[in-house]
């Protein structure tokens, strides 16, 4: 018997003619059957409507964009419960403006991080796996490139490898997010002032213990052409007035790698990297730079969903939450700073359910509902929270491409002109 074929007259339920045990047994039948689903073909080729944005009277000088990769309302709700219960408030609950963001890519209802981050960085939809390119392989000017022409200083931060999809979308133009040889070249040649995260192996050749296939030793290039930092201590002790771009590679792979426990003490947190990037702007401000843009990603929230691990989720949400607190407090003290918190997509289909059928008690069941043990991305919208100049444009329903346009609107930039670069 198929669970969908079971029909119980509502009148029987209302009059109590069906006993509680039978009802429980009946519902329990669903757990013994294959997970219920429907497959529908959905139209993808309709043009994306653009959100009407308000003009900003007092534009932002600085923008901090925090991305919780794989984080939707469910991850935030679970985190809130774990930290203090339903009446607890996390950092971005304090933000006065919020909305929801639709995340599909140009060629799929379920986006990957590359396509979604490209939408955030360029304002255009593209295919999954593409970075900084449209669906026809044309290069798109990304946000850091646009802002560089207006004498803004950009920083990219991640707890993954710095060449991972989300940070890469803000500084590279490649057809495949897995082409880390080319992505790393693009990062090195970019005018992003500060890049912080993991991924030393991506810049090292195979003969030197790295993973580069092209045999080009970019690690040596970074040593000679940038301020290359490899430890948390080096980051904390860095002379912020020193000339030159800063490249921080604090782990061979991603930060907090469980296969490299001995390196963890040498790795900064997301908030420590964010604080560095903010403080580093003083050097550029004295040189006449207009303002700063920082993208900081809590990369591994996504990974916790892929492996269905709540403890991992809580740890990574802690890391993001602390960074958001820092950004919010900075914006409170600097009224010209816009802070945005959002995500690229949801991962894992995380649910919060009652322990039983009575909806009573203080216990809940957390469950991941995509592929068991190997959670996938889902197509549900993600939240966006905003505080500061232009925050009112991050309300209601947005497409992920709208986030890019709302950021430019908050700064008051007209892309048709230019002031020149502020980076050496």
Determine the CATH superfamily: Alkaline Phosphatase, subunit A
Shape: globular
The helix/strand order is HHEHEHHEHHEHHEHEHEHHEEEEEEEH
Beta-strand portion reads 15-25%
Please tally the β strands and state the result. Answer: 14
Count structural domains.
Answer: 1
Radius of gyration: 23 Å
- Biggest sheet layout: 10 strands, mixed
How far is the N terminus from the C terminus? Answer: 71 Å
Mind explaining what this structure looks like?
The protein has 424 residues and is of the alpha/beta class. The protein has one domain (57-411): Alkaline Phosphatase, subunit A (3-Layer(aba) Sandwich), CATH 3.40.720.10. The protein is built from 14 helices and 14 strands. The chain has helices spanning 10-15, 20-32, 73-84, 113-122, 143-148, 165-168, 180-189, 200-203, 218-225, 232-236, 270-285, 300-306, 310-333, 400-411, and strands spanning 62-68, 97-102, 152-161, 194-198, 227-229, 246-249, 291-298, 337-342, 346-347, 350-354, 364-368, 377-378, 382-387, 396-399. The chain has a 10-stranded mixed sheet, sandwiched between helices. A two-stranded antiparallel ribbon has the order 9-12. α10 links the parallel β5 (227-229) and β6. α11 (270-285) packs parallel to α13. It is globular. The termini are far apart.
